[in-house]
Design a protein that fits this description.
Chain lengths: 290, 287
């Protein structure tokens, strides 16, 4: 019976879409050449000289330092932007105020700005010739060509990620539950912790993961403010660039393979969240039907 | 925060709400936005006009700078069109057909978002250089991709593709297949179904996705610089020229190019917003 139905639907779909198999095969071929080959080449090049060379490449002190710096930058930039995303989406979706559209547009600015230009902006503020340059050098503080600049540049490029996931989601959800909580006597942050957060947790996680992935991999903006001091202001992507430009290709690809694993991991979590939320949505719909 | 500014914030509200946290959340949002985005943006704008309009103009019209714009823009346009073509195909197949491994393919579409651009850059360079897996098959036909403008276009297409797929895919999935079936049963040829139903309905999303891909291509740096070859006047993109000028301590020159690029991305974003606004109005009229 089941087999029969499947057969039938197969015929139906070939009737409606004559080029079906051709289009699917073409797409798979494009995806293979365009997306899978670049992944494969990273690992092939990384292991071109065997496991030993690979291991020593990723355990090099400079690479380990770059890994630490990358983790440090992510652990500062991502929480800041999560906090901003929550505050912005609370203000925008729960209240009606003048200038809301302007605010929404301004939040999107970092998406439109080239990463190199973004990095340059911070050079103009904190660099030696920048607005705060004299004051900073008087107090012996370093932002540009130092860790704070790298953090700031990363904050800028990931700035809208969480807010952009949360705003449409919270808009769609409406504020009925929170208003009910207020009516029942809940106050301030307990409304957020007990009512809002459980509802938005998947969207929040989704935005956080996107922001984290971008923070790990940001290159252009960080490259402008970093100064490329080996072992001190090089993040993992910059380490890849430096090794590559020195013709240490195997080492460069070895470090790149770590970043590639992180990217694949990101995609896996993203897909997991999508499947979970889809299932939940399906369950809700069938629940309402009953 | 002072008392007067809190009052000001309160009067921004159009209608009162029983929910708490308006001042706190909006105050934090605006302060953070100003510190992270608006002040640095103002700094670069002021730097560009610092030496007067003439200096700004001559900085952005020197032959090398003009050549870099030309390379960047023509590559970004070509890459956006290529992304539109390939993206439309992928979006169609993902929205309409079921096949084994679909979930995997769907997840993989976002790879260019997730993969650090420097990694994409060296991977593409390795694939398409003359000894690479793909490059060595093109070499006998005298097709060179790495270290030519074709390489720049390829890298920009790689980063732009997800924008098109993710814009078009939900729209295609929403179109009721029964409309197409009805058209077919009334004698419409497949070509007519495509030109009369599918393209008109998905066009706004396609335009949006293509424009986003274009904007991303114009600003792209990491994935391009490895494969571009970076020859001044030939394969040097505008972002790279900014970095070069900064390394030569030519801050005004760098800022001038940066502001010209900012202006371009503003125009693209504004155009997109206008388009969406007009389409929404048209939808509203229809409904």
């Amino acid at each position: 019976m089941n087999l029969f139905r499947r057969f039938n639907s197969k015929i139906a779909s070939t009737l409606v879409h004559p080029g079906r198999s051709f289009l699917i095969l073409l797409t798979l071929a494009v995806i293979f050449v365009f997306l899978i080959l670049p992944l494969l080449v990273v690992f092939t090049e990384a292991f071109a000289q065997g496991w030993k060379v690979y291991k020593s490449a990723i355990l090099q002190p400079d690479t380990v330092a770059a890994l630490h710096l990358t983790l440090l930058v992510v652990s500062i930039a991502v929480p800041l932007n999560v906090l901003f995303g929550i505050a912005a989406s609370w203000a925008i979706t729960r209240f009606d105020f003048h200038g809301k559209n302007l605010l929404l547009t301004l939040i999107d600015i970092p998406l439109a700005v080239s990463p190199v230009v973004a990095g340059m902006m911070y050079v103009e503020v904190f660099g030696l010739h920048g607005w705060l340059g004299d004051w900073l050098s008087l107090h012996n503080l370093h932002v540009i060509y130092a860790v704070p600049g790298i953090v700031l540049a990363t904050v800028f490029v990931t700035f809208p990620f969480v807010a952009r996931e949360l705003i449409p989601f919270m808009q769609a959800q409406g504020s009925d539950e929170e208003i009910a909580a207020v009516a029942l006597g809940a106050r301030g942050f307990s409304i957020f912790w007990r009512v809002t957060l459980p509802n938005i947790k998947w969207a929040l996680l989704y935005g956080t993961i996107l922001a984290a992935a971008r923070s790990v991999g940001e290159f252009g903006a960080v490259s402008v403010v970093s100064g490329h001091v080996r072992g001190r202001t090089t993040t993992l992507p910059l380490q890849v660039e430096m090794l590559y430009n020195e013709y240490s290709f195997t080492e460069a690809f070895a470090v790149a393979s770590l970043l590639t694993l992180a990217a694949v991991f990101t995609l896996a979590i993203k897909t997991f969240i999508e499947i979970t939320t889809e299932r939940r949505a399906d369950r809700n719909v069938s629940g309402e039907d009953r | 925060m002072t008392a007067s500014s809190t009052k000001k914030f309160g009067s921004l509200l159009k209608s009162s709400s029983p929910l708490p946290g308006f001042r706190l959340s909006l105050g934090f949002t605006v302060t953070y936005l100003t510190a992270v985005v608006l002040i640095p943006l103002a700094a670069i704008l002021l730097r560009a006009v610092h030496n007067g309009r003439e200096a700004f103009w001559s900085a952005i019209t020197s032959p090398r700078v003009e050549a870099s714009y030309k390379v960047t823009l023509t590559s970004a346009v070509a890459a956006a069109l290529l992304s539109a073509l390939i993206g439309m195909l992928i979006a169609w197949v993902l929205a309409r057909y079921r096949f084994p491994g679909k979930r995997f393919v769907d997840a993989l579409i976002d790879l260019p978002f997730a993969l650090p651009t420097a990694v994409a850059g060296i991977a593409l360079t390795s694939l398409y250089s003359e000894h690479g897996w793909i490059g060595k098959h093109l070499e006998p036909h005298h097709i060179h991709i790495a270290f030519t403008q074709l390489g720049i276009i390829l890298a920009m297409t790689f980063v732009g593709l997800p924008f098109v797929v993710r814009s078009v895919q939900p729209v295609l999935a929403e179109i009721d297949t029964s409309i197409e079936e009805a058209a077919r049963s009334l004698g419409a040829r497949p070509w007519h179904v495509i030109t009369r139903i599918l393209i008109p309905v998905s066009l706004p999303a396609l335009v949006t996705g293509t424009a986003l891909a274009f904007a991303r291509g114009v600003g792209e740096y990491g994935s391009v610089i490895f494969i571009a070859g970076n020859m001044p006047m030939k394969t040097e993109i505008a972002s790279l020229l900014i970095v070069t000028k900064l390394e030569e301590y030519d801050y005004e020159g760098a800022a001038a190019i940066a502001v010209a690029m900012l202006a371009l991305s503003c125009v693209v974003m504004l155009g997109l917003n206008l388009l969406q606004w007009r389409l929404q109005r048209r939808e509203g009229k229809r409904a």
